[in-house]
């Protein structure tokens, strides 16, 4: 059953359209606004207040004003807020799923999956809040005691991308709340609506005014620039492109800010000759087509052993061809639009360049005619190893296939990129899994699994895919600073 226009209108009417500063929704200081569009139609969904630099500083003022008090709240209190937020998000899964589908384009089934995934960060960190331990030990020579204490790092700037509007917010807000940090959240201008609704939900869950401030806006630099030059900001967490991440790291250097950077990816999907090909195709569909391929973890390069390449490619193309493009709210849609026209054009340019260089479009290979920013699910065969489509993120429903003949060659091809986020290995040989995973340069490895992201696991990359981790115990540590207290030997008087 498809979603009605009335249902959409009722949901959009629930979304706050202002800036959240010190617990209040307000207009931009200059009255500025920006429109949020439906990528399936190109039509306007809502108009939001567009934050100025002055608004960003007001948000930091609010965060700084309550940081000391918030840091001293009992861990159980912070945990209960996160748990209530988990319950509320889960209870309102229909609203969050539909809102994500409207502003980002993903099919409703995928959007519901993101609600489950995103909400889990709230539950996971609610449980970790009361289990973030320090330690008390004796120094090796026995003369002093060592007390190690974890403190909140302080006010944080959280910059989220457009492709996972709920999960990227919960993955950052969850550990920040757990650690006792206050926040200024800057959602992506293409998909800010889910963050607006999520922030309202956090307030309803009991988060005190000023702890979470939200400054949506059309200009990221007007918001991040002045904030990162202020001594009160102590951390920036960014998920997005490597070029933007590099610039933020340069800006962060001036104030020696704590940084977490989850940047670009160029994930290899390695299929060895002994792989279960049906399972590999199923995993390839999950790793490639989640979010229409618009994910930093998306399989970007399909490296297939020459002995099974033809069979794998044929089965993969058949599965891709069976997908049905459409607006995410339609009941039979299995692949939605790309997020904007520019993104679709960039994907098509990569495909055209690969085909011009000798690749074959086994299926797809062109934009979908009509309104919206749709692209045909595409499989390319005979792709040259030096093709541009293999060297940068595709961020679309396009799968280029190339071949290898040995384990050593597969490892070399996998590592032939400046990125190192996600990777996938399909083989029935566990010894090979250990050998290859230890030699490929990626922060995440999926072994016979196409989706491996989980709130309980550390997510992050190496090389130019970033630094730091989100999720797991490691994700909480990113929002704390370690303090060591050296204590004179309490038994000295008795010795």
TrEMBL record:
One Pfam family here:
Aldedh
Enumerate the GO terms in the molecular function aspect: succinate-semialdehyde dehydrogenase (NAD+) activity
Residues passing through the membrane, by range? none
SUPFAM superfamilies reported in the protein's UniProt record: ALDH-like (SSF53720)
Catalytic-site annotation from UniProt: 262
In the UniProt record, does the keyword Protein biosynthesis occur?
no
Any one GO biological process: gamma-aminobutyric acid catabolic process
Q: Which InterPro entries match?
A: Ald_DH/histidinol_DH, Ald_DH_C, Ald_DH_CS_GLU, Ald_DH_N, Aldehyde_DH_dom, Aldehyde_DH_Superfamily
Task: Name the coiled-coil region(s).
Answer: none
Q: Which Gene3D superfamilies match?
A: Aldehyde Dehydrogenase, Chain A, domain 1, Aldehyde Dehydrogenase, Chain A, domain 2
Keywords, comma-separated and alphabetical: Oxidoreductase
Question: Can you give the residue ranges of the Aldehyde dehydrogenase domain?
Answer: 25-484
PANTHER family to which the protein is assigned, alphabetical: SUCCINATE-SEMIALDEHYDE DEHYDROGENASE, MITOCHONDRIAL
| Annotated family | Belongs to the aldehyde dehydrogenase family.
The name on file for this protein is NAD-dependent succinate-semialdehyde dehydrogenase
């Amino acid at each position: 059953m498809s979603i009605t226009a009335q249902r959409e209108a009722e949901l959009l009417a629930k979304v706050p359209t202002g800036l959240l500063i010190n617990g209040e929704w307000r207009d931009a200081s200059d009255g500025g606004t920006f429109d949020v569009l439906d990528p399936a139609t190109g039509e306007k969904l809502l108009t939001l207040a567009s934050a100025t630099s002055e608004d960003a500083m007001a948000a930091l003022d609010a965060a700084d004003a309550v940081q000391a008090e918030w840091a001293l709240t009992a861990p159980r209190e912070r945990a209960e807020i996160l748990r209530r937020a988990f319950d509320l998000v889960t209870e309102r899964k229909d609203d969050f799923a539909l809102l994500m589908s409207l502003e980002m384009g993903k099919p409703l089934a995928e959007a519901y999956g993101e609600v489950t995934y995103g909400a889990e960060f709230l539950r996971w960190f609610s449980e970790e809040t009361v289990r973030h331990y320090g330690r008390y030990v004796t120094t090796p020579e026995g003369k002093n005691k060592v007390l190690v204490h974890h403190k909140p790092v302080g006010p944080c700037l959280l910059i989220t991308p457009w492709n996972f509007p709920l999960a990227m917010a919960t993955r950052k807000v969850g550990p920040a709340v757990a650690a006792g940090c206050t926040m200024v959240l800057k959602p992506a201008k293409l998909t800010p609506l889910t963050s607006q609704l999520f922030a309202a939900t956090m307030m309803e869950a009991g988060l005190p005014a000023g702890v979470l401030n939200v400054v949506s806006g059309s200009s990221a630099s007007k918001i991040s620039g002045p904030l990162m030059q202020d001594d009160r900001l102590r951390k920036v967490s960014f998920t997005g492109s490597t070029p933007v991440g590099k610039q933020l790291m340069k800006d962060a250097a001036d104030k020696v800010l704590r940084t977490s950077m989850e940047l670009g990816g160029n994930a290899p999907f390695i299929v060895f000759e002994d792989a279960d090909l049906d399972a590999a195709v199923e995993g390839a569909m999950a790793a490639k087509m989640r979010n229409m391929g618009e994910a930093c973890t998306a399989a970007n390069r399909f490296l297939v052993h020459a002995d099974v390449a033809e069979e794998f490619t044929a089965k993969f193309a058949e599965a891709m061809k069976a997908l049905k493009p459409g607006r995410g709210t339609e009941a039979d849609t299995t692949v939605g639009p790309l997020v904007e026209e520019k993104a679709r054009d960039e994907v098509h340019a990569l495909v055209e360049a690969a085909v011009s260089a000798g690749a074959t479009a086994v299926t797809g290979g062109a934009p979908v005619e009509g309104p919206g920013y749709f692209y045909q699910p595409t499989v390319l065969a005979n792709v040259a190893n030096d093709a541009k489509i293999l060297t940068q993120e595709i961020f679309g429903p396009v799968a280029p296939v190339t071949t290898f003949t040995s384990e050593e060659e597969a490892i070399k091809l996998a590592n032939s990129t400046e990125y190192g986020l996600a990777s996938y290995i399909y083989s029935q040989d566990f010894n090979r899994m250990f050998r290859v995973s230890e030699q490929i340069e990626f922060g995440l490895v999926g072994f016979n699994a196409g989706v491996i992201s989980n709130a309980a696991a550390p997510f992050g990359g190496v090389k130019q895919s970033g630094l730091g981790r989100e999720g797991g115990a490691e994700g909480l540590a990113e929002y704390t600073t370690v303090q060591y207290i050296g204590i004179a030997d309490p038994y000295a008087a008795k010795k």
